[in-house]
Each structure stands twice: as structure tokens, then as C-alpha cells.
Amino acid sequence: MIAIIGMCCLVGALGVGPASASSLSTVHSTSFAGYQASLVTPVTTISGTLTVPALTCPATGQVNLSAQVSAFSPSGQDAGFDWYAYCSNGVAYYNGASVYTNNGGSTLVGANVGIAPGQTIKAAINQNTVTGKTTVTIKNLTTLANASGSTPNLLSFVGVSAGLFDQNTSGVGMTIPSFSKVTFGKLLFNGAPFSTLSSTRSDLYNGSTLQVATTPISSTGTFSTVFKHV
User: Alpha-carbon distance 129 to 216, whole Å?
Assistant: First the structure.
């Protein structure tokens, strides 16, 4: 698992809960831009795509960014896929993309592929309740590099989330690097589009400055996060 934010703590960290699609409002967050939802039925399958943006880095210092799609629980269980990138003294580094399942901070299974700006990652997690086996797959649709894994473990989740994270743990509200649009494509939970869940949308703010805006989610479960800094 590449990401450093614990998905089990997301609901509490954001301080938001589900809202009906007809009354969806946008929450101001200091660390997250995207969607989250509570679960009505247990999630056994997760799938979708992520695009990798080009980062424009400040000349000095280090800032970090990640995109994640995840199902999680307060007990520390989570499963999902992500990519992680950071800027260091004007240079952008792309650490890779991963798909994983975790239990209490311990990785049960994971798989990784390399990434670069402009590429698209596709990933899937399948918990087979008949065999008691979980399989994970990830593929870079641009380079065709792929990886997979399995574990004889099943997990239980209470919520799902997809979005862009400000990973600057040295100080909440740090300015994130400029980046090209990140698209979260055809996100499916149990085969149903994310848009069918009762969700909350968040935009990322630094004080009163909008840093990242979240677009409306389509009927196919697709949305984007867009750098603003206004």
C-alpha cells in the first residue's frame, strides 16, 4: 500500500456524513476533495480507474499528493487502490500505484505498478464469500504493466470513499502543488456505480482558498478533481 492516510479514520477526519443525492451539498475540507458514502449492504467488489496527473512543483520544499478509492471500517480494515506522488525542490516524483487490503494496519495482500503523468490505472478487488478468498488486480492501461495477488481473508466495511488527498502531514492546510485534472472513472461497488450511493461531496480548501474542486459524479460513477487555488 502506497498511501499514508488511514482510510478507517476518514469519516471522523472529514467530519461529514452521507447526504441524499437530491440534496447533495459540498463540504469544505482541509485534506480531501472527492466523495464518501456510508454502506447499506456489505461491499465485496470494488473496481474503477484513476488517471495520473502532471504535477507542477514549487522550487523549494516537499509537498505530497495521492488519489485513492477505498472501502473502510472504524476497526482498521480497508481495501482499495491508489497512486502517490510528491514534489521535492522543484522535481516531481511518482511513486507508483497500488491495490491492497489491510487489517488493523497489516497488509493482507497488495500489488503495484509504475506510473507516469498522463497514464491511466485500472484496479479491482473481489471478495469471494463462497471460497473465502480475496483477489486484487491492477493494470497500467498505458504501459500494459499489471500485477495481482490473493489472500484467504475477507473483510467487512462500513463506508466507501474516492478522492484526492493532501498528504502533507507536517501541517494541515499547506499549499498543494498544481496538477492536471485527475479523473476517477467508472467506480463500481458491488457492481453498482458510486453515483447510486447516498454520498457527500467535498472540496479541498486552505483557509478560504479553494485548492481543489470536485466535479459532479456521473451516472457511470465518474468524476474529476480539478486544481483551482482561488
Answer: 33
pLDDT in tens, the chain (230 residues): 444 334 433 433 333 333 333 345 789 998 899 999 988 788 899 999 999 999 999 888 888 899 999 999 888 899 999 999 999 999 999 999 999 999 988 899 999 999 999 999 999 999 999 999 999 999 999 999 999 999 998 888 889 999 999 866 444 445 688 899 999 999 999 999 999 998 999 999 988 889 999 999 999 999 999 999 85
Residues 74-108: b if buried by 16+ CB within 10 A, e if exposed: eebbbbbbbbbbbbeeeebebbbbbbbbbbeeeeb
Q: Does the reported pTM lie above 0.85? A: yes
Cβ atoms of residues 121 and 146 within 8 Å: no
Closest CA to 53 of 2, 100, 92: 92
Contact 206, 30 (CB under 8 A): yes
Superfamily of domain 7-227: Peptidase G1 (2.60.120.700)
Q: Is-contact 57 91, C-beta < 8 A?
A: yes
